[in-house]
## 1
Amino acid sequence: MTDRLNRHGTDCTADYWSRLFSALLITLSLSLLMIGAVQAADGMAAADLLERISPVGRVHVEGEAFIEAAASSAAEEVVEPIAAPTPSRSDYPNMGVSSRAIVWVLAQLHLFFGALVLAVPLFVLTIELVGVATGDERYDDMAHEFMKISLTGFSITAIFGGSLALALFLLYPDLMSYMMHVFGAQWLVYAGLFFLESFFLYTYYYGWNAFRYGNLKWLHLTLGLLLNGAGMTIMVISNSWATFMMAPSGVNEVGAVVGNIWEVMKGPLWNPINLHRFIANIAFGGAVVGAYAAFKFLSTRDPAKRAHYDWMGYTSNFIAILAFLPLPFAGYWLMAEIYAYSQQMGITAMGGILAWLFIVQAVLIGTILLAGNFYLWAGMSRTDGSNRYKWLIKYIAFVLVVCFLIWVTPHTLMLSASEIAALGGSHHHILGPLGIMPAKNIAVNLMLIVTFLSFQLYRRSDKVATVAWAPVGNALMVAIYVVAVANIIFAGVYYGYFTNTVYKVGSSVMQVASTLLVIIAGIVIDSLMFRNAKTLPSHWGRIPDRAQYALFALPIAFTWLMGLMGYVRSSVKTHWHVYTVMKDNSPDNFIPTIAYAGNMITLVTVLFLLCVLFMFWVANLSGTHQPKPVAEAEGGAA
Amino acid sequence: MSQPAERSGGNVLIKTLVFSLGLTLVFTLVTYLLPQVEGEAPMETQFDLSSMTMDDFVALGENLFNNKGTCTLCHKPAPLGRAPDIQGMDMVATSAKRLADERYQGEAKDAAAYILESMVAPSKYVVATWGKKGSNDSESPMPAVDKAPIQLSNLEMDAVIAYLQAKDGNEVTVALPSPEAAAKVAAVDTGAATGAAPAPAATAEEALGKYACSACHAMDSADTLVGPGLVDVGARLAVDEIRQSILDPNAVLAEGFPAAMPTDFAEKMTVKELEMIVNFLVEKK
C-alpha cells in the first residue's frame, strides 16, 4: 500500500486518473477543434468565398455606376458546379507497367491489413470484457497476446495505405483530383483520425499491465472502446469513397457536386458495405490469429503450451465462424441494394461477365465451411462426452458435400457444337436446374444450418443438461431444425422454379429467416437448457495435429475470398471510375479474364501471407532473449 | 527417450507454407478451368453515314442491342430474363397492343415512337409484373438508355428501333441518318463538358438561367447590355419572330447590334425549353 502512496500521502491511482482523464480531454478537444475547423473550411467554400472575392467584381470605370449584375455574375461563376473530368487515354501517366495492377496489389494489401487491424481490437476488447466478467485472467492474457501479434500490422497498414495513395495520385491524377474535389475537407478528418487511433492504440497496448485491475481496468477498456471507435470511423469514411465510386450520390448527372458531404457519403450502398465489411473483418481477423495459434501449437510439444495454443486456436476459430455465419446475409443485403440502385449493375455482377466468379466464391466458401466444420469435429476429441454426438458427423459431412457440389454447379456451359448435340441442349437436363440461384440458395442455407449444428454439438459435448425440461427442449430444437430445413427446400423449389424471377428474390428472404431462426433458437434454448449443467472434463491440447491445418486453410480461403469479392465489387463499375459520371479511359478500362484475376489474387494472397509471417516473427522477437555468449561471460567474470 | 519440448520451427514453417501455397494454387487452378472472357469497354465508333444502307443500319442496331446497349442483360428468354424477351417478340405487333392498353399513359402513336419512348422513359408504360418491387408496376427498373451508363445517341437509338422492326420482317419506319444529323448529334454531345446537368429546365425562368440569356439581355428594362433589353419584346416581335431569333439569331439582326448571339441553341435546347422561353417572352409587352 505504501508504495502506492506518493510523498504527499495521496493515492497514485487518483493521480493517474486525473492525468489520463486530462489527456483524454485534451485529445478529444483537439479532435473537436479539428472537426470544427474542417466544417468552417467547408462553409468557406460555399458562402464565405463569395463574400471574400466580391470586391473584385466591384471594379468599375471611373465616373460610371457600379455594375451590380457583373458582380453577381462573377459570384455565380464561382459557385458554378464543376463536372467530373473526362480524361483521354493520353492523360493517364504510363510507367510501363499496368497502373491497374500496381493499384490492385497495393489496395488489396492495404485492405487486408486494414481489415485485420480493425477486427483484432474489436474481439480483443470483447475477450477482455469476458475476462473482467468471469474473473479469469487467461482471457486477459490471451487478449493481450492477440494485440501483441497484430501490433506491427498497424504500421504495415499505414505503409501500404501511403503507397496506395501515392500510386493513385501518380497514376490516376484526374480521378484523384475529382475525388478530392468531391470529398473536400473530409480527407482532413480522415487523416486526423489516424492520430487519434494511434494515441488510443499505443495507450491501450502499452497500458495493458499498467491498467490491469480495479477502476484502471475500466479506463483500459474505455481506451479499447475509443480505439475501436476511431478505427470504425476510419473504415466507414474510406468505405464512402468506394461506394461513391459505385453509386455516386450528392452529385448531378455529370458529376458536379450538388449536395453536402453527408449527402455525398450516404449513397445507397454505403451502409450495406459498412455492415458487410464490419462482419467480414471480424471473421478474417479471427482466422488470421487462429493460424498463429495453430503454428505455435504445432511448434511445441510442451503440454501446457499446446493447451494454451489449442484454446487460443479454438477461440479464434469460434470468432471466425461465428462472424462468418451471418456474412452471407449481409452480402445478400448488399447485392439487393445494388440491384435496387441499378439492375444493370446487379446483373453484370451476378448474371453477366462476372457471374463465373461466383463459382470460385462457392469453392472458397465451401472450403471455409468444410475446414471450420472439420476443426469442430476434430475438437470433439477434447472431451469424452462428445461420443454422444459423433454419429451425426457423417450425416453433416454428407449434407455439406452435396450442397457444396450443388453450389459449384455452373449453369451456362461453354460447349462445342458436338457437345451441345450430345447433351441435348446448352444445359444438362438434371444439372442445369442445379446451376441457377434457387438451388444455390437452398445449398448455402443448408450448409450454414449444418455448420451451426456442428457448432452446437461441439458446445454441448462437454455438458449434461440437468434441467427437468431437457427432453422437451431437445425435441423443440429438433422440430425447429426439421421445419427450417423443410421451409428452405420448399421456398427454394416452389418460388425458384415455378414462379416469375421477381419472386425468386423474395423467396430467399424466407430461407434466410429460417436459417437465422435456427441460429437464434439454438443459442437461446441451449443457454437456458445448459444453465447449471453438469460439466464433463475437457482436455485442451488433446486434438490431432491435422486439425491445425484447418486453421491454416481458413485464413488462406478468407484472404483469397476477400481478394475475389473486392475484384467483383470494383469491376461492377465496368468502364467507369465513378459509375455514370466519370468514365475510365485508361488502357486498363476492361474487365480482365478470370485467370488473370486469379493470378492477381494469388499474388496478393502470397504477399499478404509473407507480410503476416513477418508480423508474427516480429511479435515473437519481443519475447525472445539472446543468452549471453559463454566466452564473453567468462571473460567478464575473469 | 524423451522428446524435446520444442519442435523444429523450420519444419513446421515449411509444412505450413507448402500447405498454404498449395491451397492457394488450387483456388487459382479453379479460375483457369472457367471460361476466359474479357469485358471490353464500349468503343466510340465512327459511322460512315454517306455509304450506310438500311441493312447496315439494322445490323448496327442488332450490335448495339447485344453489346453497348446491354439490353440482353435483362431482356432474355424465361426463366432467366428480368424483363420481357423482346428479341423473341414481334415488337411492332406488341407495340400496337400496348398502345391500346388502358394502362398506357405515354404519348407515342406508332411502334417506332413507342419503342423510343420505352428506351428514354421506360416508366411511361410498365409491362404487368415487370415493375420495380413495391411499385405496383408503375415504375420500371430499366435505366433510360440515353443517359449514363449506357448513353446511346439518338442515331444509335434509331438503329435499335430499326433492328427491332426489321428482325420480324416489319417495315422500318425510322429514316436512315444523314451526315448532317450526325453532326448535330456530335454538337449536342459536347455539352457535357460543363458542370450544368443536361436535365431539361422545368420553368421558363430556369431555362433563361440555364442558357444565360440575362448575361446579354436585360429582362426587366430596355437597357442595352450586349443585346437589346427584352422588357417589351412581346410588343415588338411576333411569336414566330421570337422563336426564329433564338434558333437562327443571325437571320434578322436588331439594328445596331452585332451578330454576337450563340447560334447553337437549336441543338442545345429541348423543344419544351424553347417553347417555355418563347411563351415567356411573348408575354413581355
Note: The radius of gyration of chain A is 29 Å.
## 2
Amino acid sequence: MLSRVADSLYWMSRYMERTDGILRMLKINYASSQDDTQEFSWKPVLRIFSYLEEEEAAVIANQTRAVLQFMIADKENATSVLNIVTRGRENARSVQDHITKELWVCLNDFYHSIRDGNLSRGLQYDDPVSILDVLIRQGVHYYGIMDITMARGEGFAFINIGKYLERGVQSADILDIKFSDLQFDLSRADITYWKYLLLSISGYELYLKTYRSGFDARNVVELIVLNEEFPRSVIYSVDRLQRYFGKLKGDRNKEAWKKIDFMIGKIMSRVRYSTVESILEEGLHAYLNGIKEELYEVGIALNQHYFAYI
Amino acid sequence: MQTGELLNSYNVDSHTWDEMYAALAVRPQYQGVVDFLQQMSIDELNKKEELAKRLFMSQGITFTVYSSGEGIEKIFPFDIIPRIITATEWAYIEGGIKQRLKALNLFLKDVYNSQFILKDGIVPVEMIYSCPHFLREMHGFQVPHDIYVHIAGIDLIRDQDGTFYILEDNLRTPSGVSYMLENREITKRIFPDLIPRNNVRSVTGYPDILHRNLVSMSPRQTAHPTIVLLTPGIYNSAYFEHTTLARLMGVELVEGRDLVVDNHRVYMKTTAGPQQVDVIYRRVDDSFLDPLVFDPESLLGVSGIMSAYRKGNVAIVNAVGNGVADDKAIYTYVPAMIRYYLNEEPILKNVPTYQLGNIEEREYVFSNMDRVVVKKTNESGGYGMLMGHTAGEEEITRYKEEILKDPRQYIAQPIISLSSAPCYMNGQLKPRRIDLRPYALCGPDGIEIVPGGLTRVALREGSLVVNSSQGGGSKDTWVLAG
C-alpha cells in the first residue's frame, strides 16, 4: 500500500473518531446544562476539544447555543465538527480507490449535510438534540458501512490503528480534564456530575451493572481506564491498537514494525498491570498524561516509518 | 401541464440539423424516448432532474472551486434527455475514427524516427519544428508495440446537412470518459427500464479494455504487472475521473510524490518499502512530467521518469510528445497523412482550416473575420478562441494584433453551425448545440471504440461553444444496436 494512502486512511479514521467523540460529548453536556441548578459551564468541553485559551473559553462558557454553534458549525474554529468532517472527507477523497464507494458516498453525504445552512440556523433556534442526533447517526452510519463493506486488508488495519489511537487519547483526555475540574479531589462532585461524565462516553449503563454501590470516583477511574469490556476504555483502545498493528507484521519493514510494536506493548503492560490504587498513588494526572504522551509517540513513529513519503 | 405541450414548444432552427426532429417529424431513433416523455408530467420530470443532481452531488461526481479558503463543490451540468446515435451512424463514425487513429499513430512513429513524411514533402518541415509539442527527447525512441496513442478522445460535430466533421484530435490526456460512464449510470437510476427497452449498447466495458491494454504494455514479462494512474492530485478539476478510473480498473492512484526513480527504474513508495512500477497511465501533461527534462518548476511529475521511459523500464500511456499530432495546425494535414500512410480516402472530413502562418490564407481570414472562428493551435478547452460573428470590432482588432506577433500559433475555420438536440430546461424542451467525443482505445490487438461517448452541450441559447469551462454541460450518449 502507498505510504500516502496509509497516511490518509489513518487520518480519515482519526478525524471521524474525533467527530463521534465531540458529538456525543456535546449531546450529553447539553442535557446536563438543562439539568443544573447552577449555571452550567462548558469550560471542560472547550478545553478538551478546542484550542481556546482559558479567557477566551470563559467568554462563551455559559452560553449553550454559542458553544454549540462554535463547536459544530463555526468555520473559523479549526476544531469544529464542520472542519473536522471536512478534513476527514478530504482525506477520504484522496484515497477513494482504497475505500468502498459506499463508504465514500456516506462520508461525502455527511460533509454535505454538515455544510447545510439549515443546520446552523437550527442550532440557534430549534432543538439541538435533534440536530446532534442526526449528526451522530451519520457517524454511526460511517462505522457500520466500514464494518460491513471494507476488506480486511492493510488499509483496514491502518483505519483501525487511527481509530483506536484517537479513542485512547480521547478517553484519557476526558478523564483527565473532568478530574482537573475538581482539582483531582475525588471526594468532590455529586452524583449528577459522574452520571453525565459516564453518559458522555456511553459508559453509564455499564457502570450501573458493574458497581451496585452508588457513585464513587474510584470506580469511574477503574471503568474508564481498566475495564476491558468497555469499548471506550483506555485498555480496550490500546488492546485494539496492538491487535491491528500486529496485522502489519511482515517480511518487509521488519525493524520499524518491531520498534513500534515494542512501544505499543509497553503502553499495554503499563495499563494492564495497573490498579486504581497504583494509579492514584502515581497521581491520576501524571498517569493519564503519561499514557497520552506515549500514544502520541506511537503516532509520530508511524509517521516516520510508515507514512513518510515526501 | 402535460408533456405533449412540452414537445409542441420545441422549435428547431431551420438552418440546423436537429438530432430529434426532421421536417417536423420525430426521427425513428428518438420515438421510444419521446413516447416515454409523453407519459410523464412536468412535475415528474422536474423530480427526475432533481434526483440526477442529488446523485451527482452525493457520489462526489464534482469538481471543487476554491475561493476564500474553502472549497465549493460543483457538478458539471447534466441534461436528462439522452442523445441518440443510430447503428448506421455509429458504424460510419467508428470506421472513420479507426482509420484516422491508425494514420496518426503511424505519423507519430514516423515523425519521431525516419521522418519520411517530411522528406516526401507531405507535411512541411517547419510545421513540425515550430510546434511546441514536438519533443526532441522522443527522437529515435522505440515505444512499446509502436503505439503512441493508447487513448484518444476525438471530437466530432455535424453541420446543417448532418455531415460529420472531425473538429479536434485529442491525443494527449483526453478527459471526460468518466462522464460517459456516470451519465449512463444516472440515466439508469432516473429512467428505469428505458435503456433495455430502447436497445442501447452498453459502455461499461471501457475500464476492462483499458486495463487489458495497460497490462499488455508492461515491459516486464510478469503475470501481474504494477500499473498506476498518475494524477496531478485532488485539486485537479478532473480528479473525480482519475479516482473513478483507478477504482474501476483496480489500479493504484498515485501522485508524483508517491513515485521515485532509482537506477532508471520507477518505484512507488509503499508501507512495505519501494515497489517497482511497470505501466504509468498518466493524466499529467508532458511539460510537468519530469522536472529534469521539461519544466524544472513542476511538482506534479517525477524526476528521472523520462530516463526510465527511454531505457524501456516503464511504459507511459499516452506516449510523451503526442501533442505534435493533435496540434491544430498539423490537423490540416491529417487527410494527407491518411492518403500517404494508408493509401485510402479519409472517411471522416476535416473542417476546412486556414493556416494563419500562410500569408494568402491570413489575408483571406482577416477580410472575413465575421464568418470564422480563430483558435490558438496549442490551446484546448475553449481558451484563446475568437468567435468572429459575435466578437466586437475592438476585440477583433486586438486579436489581429496578437495573431501578427506569431501567426503560426493560430488557425481559422469557417463557423460550423453544430447540430442541435433537445434539452430539458425549466419545464420545456429546447434545442441546444452539441458535439460528440467517442473514446478510442488502441492496444496491440487493434483499436476498439466503446459504443457511446461524451455529448457536450452548449447550454446557453444560440451558443456554439460546448466546452465545460465555457458553460457547457453533458448528456448521456446512446448508441443503438441495429
Note: The radius of gyration of chain A is 19 Å.
## 3
Amino acid sequence: MTTASIFPALAVLVPGLGAFLALLAPENSLKRITFYSLLVTLAGFASVAFMVPVVMEGLIPESKLLALLPGFELTLRVDLPGLYFGLMSSSLWLFAIVYSHGYMEGHGSRLKRFYFYYIISMSATMGVAFAGNLFTLYFFFEMLTLATYPLVIHSGTGEAHRSGTRYIIYCLSGGALVVFAWLISQAYLPGAFFQPGGYLEPLLSDHKNLLTVLLVTLVAGFGTKAAIMPLHAWLPGAMVAPTPVSALLHAVAVVKSGVFGIIRVLYFVYNPEIIRELAVENYLLVLVSITIILASILALRQSVLKLRLAYSTIGQLGYITLGALLFSSLGLTGGMLHLLNHALLKITLFFCAGAVINETGITSINELKGVGRRMPLTMLCFALGGLGLIGILPINGYISKLYLLQGAMESGKPLFAFVILASSLLNALYYLPIIINAFFKESDFKRPEGRESPPAMLVPTVILAVLCLALGLFANMTTIPAAERVTGYILNF
Amino acid sequence: MEMNNAFINWLPLTIVLLPFFAGLALYLTGEGKPGLVNPLVLVSTLLPLIFAAFFYSPVAAGRFPSMALDILPPVGLSFRIDYLSFYALLLFTAAGLVVSIYALHYLGQSEARRHRFFGFHLLVLSGCYGVAAAGDFFSFYLFFEFMSIMFFVLVAHNQSGAAIRAAYKFLIMTIIAGVTLFLAVAVVYWETGTLTFARPGLDLEQSTLVLIAFIGFVIAFGIKSALFPLHLWMPDAYSEAPLPAATISSMIMLKTGAYGLIRVYGNIYGIEHLGETDWSFYLVILAGFTILFGSIVALAQEDLIRRLAYSGIAQVGYIILGIALLNQLALAGATYHILAHAFMKGALFLCAGLMIRKSGSRLIADLKGIGRKLPVTMICFTLATITAVGMPPFNIFISKWHLGLGALEAESLVIVLILLASSMLNAAYYLPIVTRAFLGAEAEDGSEHPEAGPGGTYRAGQEGTGEKNRSQFPLLAEAPAALLVPVIILALGCFVFGLTPVNLPLVLIEKGIALYF
C-alpha cells in the first residue's frame, strides 16, 4: 500500500542540497565543515528513521520527484528492503563523517570538495535504496558513480587519475548496460514499478530469450558495481582514495548498491520462478562462487593492507549475491544479514587500517610488525573485525554464514556451502597473519604516549567494533528479525 | 529451595565468566601491576573448582542444573550439568587450579609479558570450563573455538620465530577444525532444528549430508585431540609453548576434543544409530593406527617434551578408540581414560618441567642421575610412569581394563593386541627415563651433549644452568613447595581413585553413559 509522503524525498534531497552547506564553511576550518556535514547527515538519517514506524506498519511511503514521460519518472518508494539498506547506509555515514574529521586533519587540502561529494554520495545512495523503478535506480546509480569519482581522484596524483579513469569507465559501462536493459523492458511494459514477484511474468511465454538477455545484461550492469569477477578490476584501483572513502563507499555504499541492484532485479523485476524457467541461475551461482574463491586467493597475494581488504570485499560481496541467487528464504535472509554484517565488519577494518596509515604512514602489511604495541585498541578492533569475517563466534559474521550454509542446503545445493567454508578458511589465511604480525612480532614500535590516534577516529572505530560483537550476541533480537521481515516481504508475493 | 535452584542454575555461567573477566582484566590492565597477577589467577581458578563441587548434590540426585540465555542465535547459549559434564567440569577445574599454582611459580616475576601469559591462560581456562558446562552443541562450539584461539597466544608467548611458526600452524589447524565443525553443526541444526545435549541422539536420517557432518566432527575433534594424521600441530606447539601451557593443553584441551566426540556419539547421532552404519569402524582403524604411531614415534624422540607429546597422541588414541567401539564398556573405559591420562600426563609434564629447569636441557640423555638430586620429583615421575604402563590399582589400569573388555565384546582381538603392544611400548619409552635418572651415572663433562633440544630457544636452557655448573648442584635441590605440591597432587591422583571404596569418577561415568544405551 503506497502512501504519498515527503520523507523519501527528504532523505534524498536533504543530503543532496545540504551538501552545499558544507561549501559555505571557510575553506580551512575543518571543524566548521565537519559540523555542517554532521548536521546534514544527521538530518538525512532522521528523515530515513522517521519512516521506520510507517514502513513497519506495512505502508510504502512514496515521493514522485519528477515525471518526464510515462516511465521516465523519478519515483521513490520506501519498502522494507529499501528501508533496511537505507537505514544501514545512512547511519554509517554518521560514523564516517566523524571519522573523516580525524583523518582529514592530516590531509588538509581540498576539504570542502571532499565533504561536498561525500555528502552528495549519501544522497545518491539513499536514492538507490528508495528507487521505486528501474529508471530511478539507474539515475541514482549513475549519480553515485559521478559523485564518488572526485573522491577517488582526491589526492590528484597521476595514479589517482589513472584509477579514477578506470573507475568511471567500469561504472559508467555498468550503468549503460542497465539503461539498455531498462529501455528494452520499457518498450514492452512501460512505466512498471518494482514489486515483490517482479513484473516481467507476462513476457515469459513469448519472449524467453529476451528475458534471458535482459537478465544477464542487468546482472552484469549491477554486477560491475558489486565487483563480480571479471568486472571487479576498478575496485582495487579505487583504493587510492582517502580511507574514509574506501571505508564507507568502496566497502559499503557503492558496492552494496550494486548488490542491492541485483537483489532488485532478481526479486522485484524478475522472480525466482521466472529465473528458474530461464535456467541461468546455476551459471550465475558458479560465477559468483568463482568470484568468492578467486578474490580470497588474490587477497592472499596482496601485501598492501588496503588492497587486501579490497579483495576481501570482492569475496564477501559474493556471499551476499550467492545468498540472493540461492532462491531460498534462508539463503536470502543470510544475504540480507551479510549485507549488514559485512558492512559493519569491513568499515571497522578500514577505519583501523586508516588509523594505522595515518599514524605510522605505513601501508604495507609486512612493515606492520608489532604495530599492536603502538596502537593496541585499534589493532584489537582490527582483530575483532578480521575474526568476524572469518566467521568466529560470537562476532556477527558467523550468523550470516550460518544462514547462507542452511540456505545452500535448503535449496538442495550443498556444494555452495563448501564454497563459503573454503572461503572462510582463506579469510583466515589472509587476516590472521596481519593480526599475528601486529601483536606478536618484535619491532621498534613504542607504547603511545598519550592517545594512540585522534579520538575522532578511535571512538567511531571502537563503537563499530563493539556493535559487531553485540549484533553477534544479540542477533535474535535485532538483525535476524529485521532480515527475516525483509526476506518475508520480498518472497511473499 | 527455589532460591537454591536459581543459584545452582546460574553457577555454570559464573564458573565461565569468572576466569573470563579476570583474564581480560589481567591482559588489559596487568602491565605495570605485577602484584595483580598471582592473587587474580589463584582466586579465579580456585573459585570455579569450589563452585563446581556445588553440583555434586543435585547431580548425584539425578537433577541436572540447566540454564539457557536467549543470546547467540540460532540456538542460544545454554548450560547443562549432567553426569558427564560434572565429571569433565570437576576434572578441568581441578587441573586448572593445580597447573595454575605451578605456573605462577614456574613463570616467575622475571618472566616477560607475564600479565599477558596469565591473562590468556585464564581465558583459555574459561573456554575449557565452558566446553564442559555447555548444554548444547552450539554453546560447546563457541567455547571450543574460543579456547583454541586464545591458546594461540600461549604458544606464541616467547615470540621467537619458531614459537610464532608453531603457533601459526596451530592456529591454521584450529581454523580448519572450526570450519569443519561449523559445517557439521550447521548440517545437524538444519536436519533436526536442535543441538541439545539433553537427548540421547537426535534421530538423524542417514544421508550423504549427515555423513559429511560426521566426517566434519571427526576432523574437528581429531585435530584437537591430535588424531593421526591431524596431529601435526601438536609436537611443535608443545615444544615451543611454555611448559605450563603445554600441560594445560595436554590435560584439558586434548580432552575437550574427546569429550566433544563423546557428545557427538551420545547426544547427536546416538550410539545405536551409529551402530547401524559402518562409519565408526573407520574411526576405530584410525584410532588404532594413532596408538601405534604415537607410541613408536615417541620411542624415537630424544627430547623429553616431544616424547611426552607423541605419547599423548597415543594415549588420546585410546580414548577415541573406546568411543568408536560403540559399546558401553569401551565407552566407560574411554571416558575414564580422560581422567587417567590427565593426571598421568599432567604429573609427567610438571615433573619434566622441574627436571629441565634443574638440568638445563630437554634431552633425555642429559637427565642422567637427576633422580638423586630431585628424589621427590623422580618418585612422582616414576609413579606416573607406572600408571602409564597400566598397572593396578593405577587409573590407567582401570581404563585399559574396560577398553580391553569392550574390545573383546566387539570381538576385536586386534584391538586387544594393539592395547597390549602399546602398553609395552609405553614401558619402553618411559622406563628408560626413570632408570637413567635414578641409576645413570652423572656425566662428568657435558661436552658430549648438545646444548639445547630441537626447540632451540627454550628459555630454561638460557637461565644459567649450563653444562658447567650442573655438577655443582647441592646434593638435594628440590624445587620449592609451590612447584612440588602440584606435582605430588597429580601423582597421587594417578592411583588414589583406585584405592577409595567408591571410585566417584567411575560412578559418574557409568551413570552418564548408561543414558546413551
Note: The CA atoms of residues 368 and 435 of chain B lie 9 Å apart.
